[in-house]
């Protein structure tokens, strides 16, 4: 039996009857709904809901999108992503290929982990790859990445949005970073992406929290210098600066321990600049302690760039109370009309 959360007429953003593509809340809400559409596509497949019984179509049709293609995992054949095309009524726009008034032409969306037997094993395997900084080596990511490459090559980067939630946000983030390194800066909406680190953000005492972060930055910067000594080529390479022009929309909830560290990650960078320690933080923010430690004490092999590290972002923090972790981590929160949000722009310089 379908849950209420799967039914658009019960849980979707029905208040968005007219979309203003220059309105940040509208853009975020539509992107989140398209991600939810991928979740329901897979649930429809698992529950064998077809035709008029399928629950997924309203999640994109309400906003005048058409499902162009499902992205299928080659291991368990689950649906992990979808490509949507914006097809508004003829009265709303002309047939121009160029996106006008801020609307996308295509959206590529990726879902997160589904805790159901038909997909959980493969999803959990991908979650482990994220923790090991190995998502880029998986066949699911390559399928999604190829879809992004093909779409950008066909219609141009300005006509493509990326969107994802949780595991799917990690997919979208890695795809966006990969494209940005080639000079293609895609609009992206990353909902509750995982940030793997000690839960410093949960410490209530601000002085203690700030002290721990400063100590971490000093140690990380020191290890980064040591790693550079073992790998001279890395001195001239600065992928962070190359990515700094890409500014995805990053949506996190402080009650979600899987993504809340992004709040401290960006706030700490700003504070380090204010106290005159910007050079230390500029070096530290590009690395993770775990990866650097393995580089320095290991076999001299440079660690893979941690997925969660972002140079720049439009950070949106949901300050609305959450009843539990499930609500704080869920995708549904991002289209509620009564959200209490704190929005900040962070640019890596």
Automatic annotation (TrEMBL):
Q: Where is the Fungal lipase-type domain?
A: 146-185
Q: Which GO terms describe its molecular function?
A: hydrolase activity
Q: Spell out the InterPro entries in the cross-references.
A: AB_hydrolase_fold, Fungal_lipase-type
Name any Gene Ontology BP term. Answer: lipid metabolic process
Looking up Gene3D superfamilies in the UniProt record yields: alpha/beta hydrolase
Q: Which Pfam families match?
A: Lipase_3
Q: Does the keyword Hydrolase apply?
A: yes
Q: Which UniProt keywords apply?
A: Hydrolase
Protein name per the record: Fungal lipase-type domain-containing protein
Name the species this protein comes from. Gossypium darwinii
């Amino acid at each position: 039996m379908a849950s209420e959360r799967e039914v658009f007429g019960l849980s979707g953003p029905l208040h968005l009857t007219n979309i203003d593509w220059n309105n940040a809340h509208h853009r975020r809400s539509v992107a989140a709904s398209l991600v939810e559409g991928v979740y329901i596509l897979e649930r429809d497949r698992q529950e064998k809901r077809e035709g008029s019984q399928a629950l997924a179509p309203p999640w994109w049709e309400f906003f005048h999108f058409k499902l162009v293609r499902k992205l299928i995992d080659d291991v368990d054949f689950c649906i992990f992503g979808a490509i949507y095309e914006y097809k508004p009524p003829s009265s709303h726009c002309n047939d121009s290929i160029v996106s006008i008034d801020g609307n996308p032409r295509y959206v590529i969306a990726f879902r997160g982990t589904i805790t159901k037997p038909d997909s959980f094993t493969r999803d959990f395997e991908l979650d482990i790859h994220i923790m090991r900084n190995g998502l880029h080596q998986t066949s699911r990511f390559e399928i999604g990445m190829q879809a992004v490459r093909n779409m950008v090559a066909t219609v141009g980067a300005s006509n493509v949005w990326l969107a994802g939630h949780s595991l799917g946000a990690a997919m979208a983030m890695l795809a966006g970073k990969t494209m940005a390194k080639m000079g293609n800066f895609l609009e992206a909406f990353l909902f509750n992406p995982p940030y793997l680190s000690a839960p410093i953000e949960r410490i209530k005492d601000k002085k203690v929290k700030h002290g721990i972060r400063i100590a971490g930055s000093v140690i990380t910067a020191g290890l980064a210098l040591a790693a550079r000594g073992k790998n001279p080529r890395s001195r001239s390479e600065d992928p962070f600066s190359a990515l700094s022009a890409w500014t995805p929309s990053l949506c996190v909830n402080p009650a979600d321990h899987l993504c809340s560290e992004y709040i401290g990650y960006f706030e700490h960078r700003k504070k380090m600049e204010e106290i005159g320690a910007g050079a230390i933080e500029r070096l530290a923010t590009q690395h993770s302690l775990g990866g650097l430690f393995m580089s320095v004490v290991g076999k001299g092999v440079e660690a893979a760039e941690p997925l969660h590290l972002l140079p720049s972002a439009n950070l949106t923090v949901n300050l609305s109370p959450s009843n539990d972790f499930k609500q704080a981590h869920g995708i549904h929160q991002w289209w509620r009309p009564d959200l209490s949000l704190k929005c900040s722009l962070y640019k890596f310089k």
